[in-house]
Amino acid sequence: MEKTLAIIKPDAIKKKLAGKIIDRIYDKNFNIAGLKMLHIQENQAKEFYKVHAERPFFNDLVKYMTSGPVIVAVLEKENAIKDWRNLMGATNPAEATEGTIRKDFGENIEANAVHGSDSPETASIEVPFFFPD
User: Fold this and answer.
1) Over the stretch 55-69, which tens digit does the pLDDT of each residue have?
2) I need a labelling partner for 25 at 20 to 30 A (CA). Which of 16, 17, 67, 84 fits?
């Protein structure tokens, strides 16, 4: 059973889309092993996204991810990472496939409704970041 981190981002929370997104997660037969709503603090966002620290969008990303509450979840199933990434769609909603979360609910490349781990290595860091137990 593979695990991946999912984040329902501030834009999706503000638009009251969390329930629709969680429904899609269940519809694709994921098990939700952990789920909580929180407001990411600036220091947490900087640590979580430190891989992007040298990128020009880093400060905007931190500001955005701390702009409101998020829902973080641990999703599990066989091929969880690949299946979650397919369900999310491309990072840029304009390039995402029809029927994906980002195509249906994303506004732009930053406010794209959801986040997901991109590899087993990343998931092994991201999951315990929010779910240390």
Assistant:
1) 999 999 999 999 999
2) 67
Residue 90 burial by CB count (10 A; 0-12/13-18/19+): exposed, middle or buried? middle
Give residues with Cβ within 8 angstroms of 98, minimum separation 6: none
**What ranges make up the beta strands (E) of 1-133?**
2-8, 31-38, 70-77, 114-116
Contact yes or no for 75/101 (Cβ under 8 A): no
**Fold for the domain defined by 2-130:** Alpha-Beta Plaits (3.30.70)
Predicted TM-score (pTM) of the model is 0.94
31-38 and 70-77: which strand pairing?
A: antiparallel
Is 52 in the active site?
Answer: no
Which tokens belong to 19? 């329930």
